[in-house]
Amino acid sequence: MAKNKSASHHIRIISGQWRSRKLPVHDLEGLRPTTDRIKETVFNWLMTDVKNARVLDCFAGSGSLGFEALSRYAQFTQFFELNPQAAKQLTTNLATLNCDNARVSQGDTLSLLEQPPAQGFDLVFIDPPFRKGLAEPVIQQLSEKKWLANDALVYVETESELQHLATPTHWSLLKEKSAGQVTSRLYLVQAVK
What we know:
There is one protein chain. By secondary structure, this protein is α/β, with parallel strands linked by helices. The protein has one domain (about 10-190): 3-Layer(aba) Sandwich (Rossmann fold). About 25% of the residues lie in helices and about 30% in strands. The chain has helices at about 35-45, 65-70, 85-95, 110, 135-145; strands at about 10, 20-25, 55, 75-80, 100-105, 120-125, 150-160, 170-180, 180-190. A seven-stranded mixed beta sheet has the order 5-4-3-6-7-9-8, sandwiched between helices. The protein has a two-stranded antiparallel sheet with strand order 1-2.
């Protein structure tokens, strides 16, 4: 039986104001929601850093990471998503949650990062489609175009075979963990002297 590409699945919010809420997501090619296990690890790493943070979710997809941050009282979340169907679902899910402190921008992340923001972000999620070489150019854009607040935290999720990730010299690797096909890294971006 052929797989229905528009079939719906769910992501689950682990903790915070919307704990245990399930949100629908489309089954779209390349969409790979962060698993609950990985999400739990990431948010354990970020436990004291989410509340009141300005969050940027660079490859939002299902919105799993961004919604988790909002549930844990992030001040604001900006979602970037290329796929129009996925972007529409993010907007619908925000409305379902009565959430007005988030915005969805539909488009190519590298293009969206061209225009510097009015204010830097405290926490950034980079979880691109695997094996497309997108993590490093996004990291470069974030640094060059001043998307990051002082002492920002950047979470990067890549395929495990990507052993080395080129980052600016003022980025310090705080945490790293590999599980199956996924490697998770957390960086602290120090102010450039």
